[in-house]
Amino acid sequence: MRMSALQELQLLEIMCSCFQEQSRDTVRQLMFSALFSLQRNQADESRMALLGKLVSMAIAVGRVPILECGATWLQRSHRVYCVRLAQVLVDDYCSLVPGSGPTLQNIHNASPRFCCQFITAVTTLFDLTTEELTPPLELLQMIVSWIQDDPGLVLINFLNTALSGNQPISSLDVTPLGGLMRWCVKAPLAYRRDKKEGLTNGTTEGEPEVGPLFSALHLSVLQVLMLLPNILNEKGLFGRLALLQVDSLAALTSDLSRLLDQADKHTHTSSADTRVPSQLALERLAQALQVAMANGALLCSREDLRAICSRLPHNNLLQLVLSGPVLYYNNIHTPPLAFSPHAAHSPIAPHPTHPAHTPQAAHPPSHPQYPAQPFMAGMPFPFRPSH
Q: Whole-angstrom Cα distance, residue 173 to residue 193?
């Protein structure tokens, strides 16, 4: 029998009280699993509808035990159902009720585990393939603020889960890093496609905040990747567990190639206006690939990486990463490499080693004391060591 709205509200209040008053987490998890584990039968739709309303109510009234159970449910359920729950919450707090965003914002403090799983689910849901699957501005602002306040938030599920090496294909990713990387790389072109009047950094006239938000998110993702070596070494998983999957990377480069083709074919602006978002997307991809490989998040040979990126147009930074090996330093304050091929084109003049030293008027034509760099052969830009 179908319940009336009043009966449904009464049932939700009883369930909230029941989970809140149960002091044993194991019992709560068993109860939640018995009620909402999907059985692939006709009752699944009713379970999903009630689950969405229960979790939404738990967020509204601050029922942390239910959010903790919801985090476990998101970790164990099929990703199709996880994104359905995420869609319900986004609709409730970012679309249907204006001004309710701050309530959803509080889940970061109430249940970091649920917040991490929620980010993973929404980055799976909003893949930027269409305007409808582009994250709402309010949601994007929330996620950026969460990760800026606590970069380790996106690793909570990974840190609290015993991993055997391979997660079920049907489940959500163990971290939202792959989805966040996809957002940052595709945003400049996806927002340009949807809004028709894109500016640099993926912004539009109507949403000037979007570009800086994605730039801040991209920086945060790189910073999180730089936290991984110590964590993976402590777990004995460095070089054994990839938090970014090669097949997901292949799907990203395929989507990016398609977006780049669309930008070339359908643009009505000058070639310079088209090139800026395209190069931004490729440079973000290159930066993410290099930092991910250097810190053990992506286990992929340079040959495989070149094959995956073979359909992408030329970009100097991406070409450098694909050519490898590229030295990488975790310390962001480390000065630029002396052999950087970009040094000759840098607008910043190098500091002299000794104040009294007078720089030469021109570099000599050759430097026999510096051995040739074989991996740089055939690069499309000039290469010259700098003093």
A: 27
Q: For 222, what's the count of Cα atoms within 13 Å in the CB-facing half-sphere?
A: 22
Confidence of residue 266 (pLDDT cuts 50, 70, 90): low
- Answer whether 142's CB lies under 8 Å from 109's CB: no
Distances (CA, A) of 109 to 145, 263, 312: 12, 41, 41
Least Cα distance to 63 among 95, 105, 24, 18 occurs for 18
Contact 30, 19 (CB under 8 A): no
| Residue 198: φ, ψ to 5° | -70, 145
Neighbouring CB atoms inside 10 A of 237's CB total 17
- Distance separating alpha carbons of residues 226 and 300, to the nearest angstrom: 17
Residue 326, pLDDT above cutoff 70: no
- What are 170-202's pLDDT values in tens digits? 899 999 999 999 999 999 998 876 655 434 444
214 pLDDT band, cuts 50/70/90, is: very high
